[in-house]
Design brief:
Blueprint: H1 2-10, H2 33-42, E1 52-53, E2 58-61, H3 76-85, E3 88-92, H4 103-109, E4 112-114, H5 116-120, E5 124-126, E6 133-134, E7 139-140, E8 150-153, H6 161-168, E9 173-176, H7 191-210, E10 218-220, E11 223-225, E12 229-233, H8 237-248, E13 252-256, H9 260-268, E14 272-274, H10 294-308, E15 313-316, H11 331-335, E16 342-345, E17 362-365, E18 368-371, H12 381-399, E19 405-406, H13 419-426, E20 427-430, E21 433-434, H14 455-464, H15 468-492, H16 496-517, H17 524-534, H18 538-545, H19 555-584, H20 599-614, H21 620-636, H22 644-666, H23 670-693, H24 699-725, H25 735-764, H26 777-790, H27 792-797, H28 801-824, H29 831-853, H30 856-880, H31 884-888, H32 914-923, E22 926-931, H33 933-938, H34 941-953, E23 957-962, H35 972-979, E24 987-989, H36 990-993, E25 1002-1006, H37 1015-1018, E26 1037-1042, E27 1062-1066, H38 1069-1085
Parallel strand pairs: 2-3, 2-5, 3-4, 5-8, 8-9, 12-13, 12-15, 13-14, 15-16, 16-18, 22-23, 22-25, 23-24, 25-26, 26-27
Antiparallel strand pairs: 1-19, 6-7, 9-20, 10-11, 17-18, 20-21
Helix pairs in contact: 3-4, 3-12, 7-8, 7-12, 16-30, 17-19, 17-30, 18-19, 18-22, 18-24, 19-22, 19-23, 19-24, 20-22, 21-22, 21-30, 24-25, 24-28, 24-29, 25-28, 25-29, 26-28, 29-30, 32-38, 34-38
């Protein structure tokens, strides 16, 4: 076979292996194709892939010989990346010395150290500066290239036609780093931007060195020093880097650019954007500004002349490709500056923006220091070389993605912003043929679209339209309505007992309002659970209405015992679940707790009451007050992690005291007491069993199920009270009030009961979590509400028992249907609001029982729970920028949505695998994880918790950022992470962590979408416009872990998927997290 191959190669006339075999066998000819195809068929060999295997290619890194050039094309880390890919790498001895990379560093990375001629004879040469004449060897660098080699370097082909001619003689393929198109997909390969970033930073450092004062303002015992004033011309990469550096040093920064987008960038960095009166857009091609009109330039020069007399430092960066830099500062302007001022001209190499600049020199003219260096990136050689190396590595991997062969194919037909666009623009010579300039793409954007105003800007404009008079009038109207309501209630009050109850209700509501606002968001789930348990005091109503002996003797007594039984399930189950959740937040380093000692105050409270009762004292009202205060303490205890378990204990004491006082006031017979005890014992046993067995991931559906029990208990109690009190209505002056409260309590309880069951079904997966949008659902709900209200007319007018019971039964059925239609129209992602609203409903149902039974305890506790649920509902709605009516009625869109056509999202996404993600995690020191409901559904909290533990042990700063509506109930993710062992002090809320994203190296988005969607801030027409979100895209790098690129619950595309600093790690969250955990453990143990 070998001899056959030699015969075939020697006897052919047309190349067929130009991109397959090394240069040594480039002489294979076309007439032999039939012979090779025959042997391929006979040997069942697949057609060879195009390109040359990496292992057959040598990459050469020569030492830069351009005067004062200290950079090197590849850093040791870059060499290591190429060696890992399969390349052979040779580095000229001393190539990295000026960049602080020794030969030993390169050897350790896998490179060989060789001489100049050997390195320049490589298959692929990477350089910083274009090839020049080597005076030491007496030969041009290009003449030392081997035939058909590939060169990657800054070339500037339009300015160097002679160099291109010399390279063409060697059949060289040239990738010009200065010709990488400035499109989104190529940002990682944009070496011009990398170098401009360094130049902008270095310009500020040099200016500070030559400036005779602090940049930041100082107030000392010797006097006050004002901050330096810095003017930056040009809002490109260099200008923005200068602005950021100067601002961080405390200077007052001003920026000017002819492009509106660049001025916005200046503003985002805290600089003051300067504009002229002439309205003209400076948007040009390729990311540069265009030349402006004569009128604009005149206005511009007047602005600059005025600024020269005020500022201390000027940094200019204005360039127009292929042309001499425009003169923006005349000699007289510079001479008008204060003595000691400094000017830095980053356009010096192209002639300069300042008339008095001397390229390559630093000198003083009329007291103003001029810095005209043309090699600023080289003056930070280590950093510049590292970034340039990264640009080259990313470019080579992008244009040749094959894992075995090096191959790329420039095409003359390509679309704008694609990888083909990058390849064709970068390759200026192919096999000795000059193909510069590249043809235009097929779909060049027709000019930049008019910039949309941000959501924040629109909100500010909207707020500005509200006059102070209108604002004050609105506030005054609210207070007028509230005080008028008080007068109305006083007029219709049937007796003083009702007035006292309203007073208790109002004060309890105010206390509950202020108490619940103090609860930390991380404990919102325990708050829901403890209020659920306390709402089980509907058992008080059942106990009051119970009768008979060992068993009930009529319908009303049967309803009462059922209410007591159901409420007991809530009490016992709610407190146990709360305790389980709070125990999860304990850290190994926390001091020991002795919460069993709270049995002492509980025992004194209940036992002392029993002793007082036995002594003939009637202190039930004081017991109710004490129990109510304990329930307030239960909510207040959740304000911090340290007092949370005390809060749960106080809740238990409060409920126990209330039940004891109720039994003491009733003084039941032994038989009835046995019936009461049996109902509560059975309910408590069931509640404890459920709470002990439930998984924490199922907590939302458990809360929903318990809410349904509260609603059902309220309905049963209200109907039973009507049955028992009916014979006294004719003589009772408060009969109408009793009937109204019983009717309202029945309605609220019915909605709570059925709505909670539907919520349970959606969360448990029994029902489809998607919203059920029935045709005409709003009309249906309006009809059900009208029928429920209309039912009060015969109920109040007709005094007959049959009519009353029929109306109560009807409103029970109507409210139950309405609970179903309302909740079914709400999607699974809105369940946090549904659960908090249902929680609020249960509180108001409890209040209704309090008014019905004239019981202070039920009124106080009901007001607490009602206000708690209302506040949590408000917090959830604010977190989505939606109104409560919008959520409850199954609507979409935020209150800020403009209603126009949503922003079109363009670009391509970047996908990575687990190995790539591990490398990014290992390189990052400051990491934030933003989980969503996908983490809950996949139960991925355990591998993530272990991953975080390992990373923290390596000294990395790892934290979590939680959105208020992430999960299916408030605080669910906090509880899940606590269950997995994540310390609560590294789990932060959105408002606490959003400011930290710009300083974050890496963000891991796990199973979240809408809560990290940048369209909420960038697109006023998005249906989530104005929704507060975790600003993950502001970090340096983002890894999004999702099953697919699909939309979230809001059905809105997420622009962050297509941002240049985002990588998509697609797949099942649990499997991906398991893989990350295993890989990190393996890497740190090896």
């Amino acid at each position: 076979m070998a001899s056959l191959l030699r015969i075939a190669v020697s006897g052919c006339s047309t190349p067929v292996f130009g991109n397959v075999l090394p240069p040594k066998v480039h002489s294979a000819k076309m007439p032999c194709l039939r012979m090779f195809r025959t042997h391929q068929v006979l040997n069942s060999q697949a057609a060879p892939k195009p390109g040359i295997p990496y292992k057959q290619l040598t990459v050469g890194v020569p030492k830069e010989i351009f005067e004062n050039e200290k950079r090197v094309a590849l850093s040791p880390a870059g060499v290591q990346a190429l060696v890992k890919q399969g390349f052979n790498v040779v580095v000229e001895s001393g190539a990295g010395e000026a960049s602080k990379f020794s030969d030993d560093h390169y050897r350790e990375a896998g490179a060989k150290i060789q001489g100049t001629k050997e390195v320049l004879a490589s298959d692929l040469i990477v350089k910083v500066r274009a090839p020049i004449y080597n005076s030491a060897l007496g030969v041009h660098e290009a003449d030392l290239f081997k035939p058909a080699a590939t060169l990657v370097s800054f070339i500037y082909p339009a300015q160097n036609p002679d160099l291109l001619k010399k390279l063409a003689e060697k059949n060289t393929t040239v990738l010009a780093m200065d010709q990488v198109p400035r499109v989104t997909i190529a940002q990682g390969y944009d070496a011009l931007s990398s170098m401009a970033n360094i130049a902008g930073y270095k310009a500020v450092v040099l200016a500070a060195n030559h400036f005779g004062r602090f940049f930041t303002g100082q107030i000392t015992a010797a006097g006050k020093v004002p901050p330096a004033k810095v003017l930056i011309i040009g809002g490109g990469v260099a200008g923005l880097a200068s602005a950021g550096a100067a601002k961080s040093m405390g200077a007052v920064v001003r920026g000017f650019d002819t492009r509106a987008a660049a001025l916005e960038q200046f503003k985002s960095l805290g600089a003051e954007p300067l504009e002229v009166d002439v309205k003209e857009s400076g948007e040009g091609q390729g990311g540069y500004a265009k030349e402006m009109s004569k009128e604009f330039i005149e206005a511009e020069m007047k602005l600059f002349a005025k600024q020269c007399q005020d500022v201390d430092i000027i940094i200019t960066t204005a360039l127009i490709p292929g042309k001499k830099a425009p003169i923006l500062f005349k000699k007289d302007m510079i001479e008008s500056m204060k003595e000691g001022s400094v000017v830095v001209d980053l356009a010096a190499e192209a002639g300069g923006n300042i008339e008095t600049t001397k390229p390559g020199e630093v000198y003083v003219h009329k007291g103003v220091t001029h810095i005209g260096y043309t090699d600023l990136p080289s003056r930070m050689a280590t950093q510049a070389s590292t970034l340039y190396s990264n640009n080259i590595i990313k470019l080579l991997k992008a244009i040749s993605p094959d894992k075995e062969n090096f191959y790329f194919d420039p095409k003359d037909e390509f679309d704008y912003g694609t990888l083909d666009h990058v390849i064709r623009g970068t390759v200026v010579m192919k096999d000795g043929k000059v193909i510069f300039p590249a043809p235009p793409p097929n779909n060049i954007p027709q000019g930049a679209p008019v910039k949309q105003k941000t959501v924040a800007e629109l909100e500010a404009e909207k707020a500005a339209t509200i006059t102070p008079f209108r604002k004050t009038m609105t506030s005054a109207s609210v207070y007028t309505a509230g005080l008028s309501s008080m007068l109305g209630l006083g007029i219709v009050a049937p007796n003083t007992a009702f007035t006292q109850m309203v007073t208790t209700f109002g004060l309890a509501g105010i206390v509950g309002y202020h108490t619940v606002w103090g609860v930390t968001p991380a404990l919102h789930s325990p708050l829901m659970s403890v209020t659920n348990a306390i709402s089980g005091l509907t058992a008080v109503g059942g106990l009051v209405l119970m009768g008979g002996n060992y068993i009930p003797e009529n319908t009303s007594q049967t309803l009462a015992v059922l209410s007591t039984f159901i409420s007991s399930v809530n009490i016992a189950g709610g407190f146990l679940v709360t305790q389980r959740m709070l125990d999860m937040f304990k850290r190994p380093t926390d001091p020991p707790e002795y919460n069993y000692l709270y049995l002492l105050p509980g025992g004194v409270f209940v036992g002392g009451y029993a002793a007082a009762l036995n002594g003939g004292y009637n202190i039930e009202q004081m017991m109710y007050l004490g129990s109510g205060l304990c329930c307030v303490g239960a909510l207040a205890g959740l304000s911090t992690q340290g007092t949370a378990r005390l809060g749960n204990a106080l809740g238990m004491i409060g409920v126990a005291g209330g039940l004891a006082a109720t039994l003491g006031g009733l003084k039941p017979s032994p038989e009835l007491l046995a019936q009461m005890s049996g109902a509560m014992a059975l309910g408590s046993t069931i509640g404890l069993t459920i709470a002990k067995r439930i998984q924490i991931t199922d907590l939302p559906q458990l809360v929903a199920a318990f809410h349904s029990l509260v609603g059902l208990a309220a309905v049963l109690t209200c109907v039973a009270e009507y049955m028992i009190e009916y014979p006294h209505f004719a003589t009772d002056p408060a009969a109408n009030l009793t009937k109204i409260v019983a009717y309202l309590g029945t309605y609220i309880g019915g909605v709570t009961f059925s709505g909670s069951l539907v919520a349970y079904g959606k969360l448990q997966g029994i029902l489809n979590s998607a919203p059920l949008l029935l045709p005409g659902r709003h009309a249906l709900n309006a009809g059900l509400l009208a029928a429920s209200i209309g039912g009060m007319v015969p109920y109040m007018i007709d005094p007959s028992y049959t009519t009353g019971i029929t109306c109560l039964g009807s409103v029970s059925a109507l409210s139950a249907i309405m609970g179903v239609t309302l909740t079914a129209a709400i999607g699974g992602a809105d369940m946090p609001v549904v659960i908090t609203v249902l929680n609020s409903y249960s509180g108001w149902a409890l209040c209704a029982e309090g008014f019905l039974l004239n019981n202070n305890l039920l009124t106080i506790v009901g007001a607490l729970i009602g206000s708690s649920g209302a506040i949590l509902s408000y917090i959830m709605c604010v977190a989505m920028n939606r109104s409560l009516a919008n959520v409850i009625l199954g609507g979409y869109g935020t209150t800020s949505t403009a209603g126009g056509k949503p922003m079109e999202i363009t670009g391509t996404h970047t996908e990575i695998n687990v190995d790539n993600a591990i490398e990014m995690i290992k390189e990052a020191n400051n990491i934030i994880i933003t989980p969503g409901y996908g983490l809950c559904a996949a139960k991925a909290q355990y591998p993530i918790a272990d991953l975080v533990k390992m990373l923290r042990e390596q000294g990395k700063n790892v934290r979590f950022g939680i959105h208020p509506v992430a999960g299916r109930m408030p605080g669910q993710l906090n509880v899940l992470l606590a269950e997995a062992g994540v310390p609560y002090d590294i789990v932060l809320e959105m408002d606490e962590i959003n400011e930290d994203f710009p300083d974050t190296d890496l963000v891991l988005v796990i199973g979240a979408n809408d809560t990290v969607n940048s369209a909420a801030q960038e697109d006023p027409n998005s249906i989530i416009a104005g929704m507060p979100v975790l600003e993950v895209w502001k970090s340096k790098q983002v890894i999004v872990m999702k099953r697919s690129l699909g939309v979230g619950y809001a059905a809105v595309d997420n622009p962050i998927f297509y941002k240049p600093n985002t990588a998509m790690l697609l797949g099942d969250a649990k499997k991906t997290c398991d893989a990350l955990q295993a890989k990190v453990r393996e890497s740190y143990q090896s």
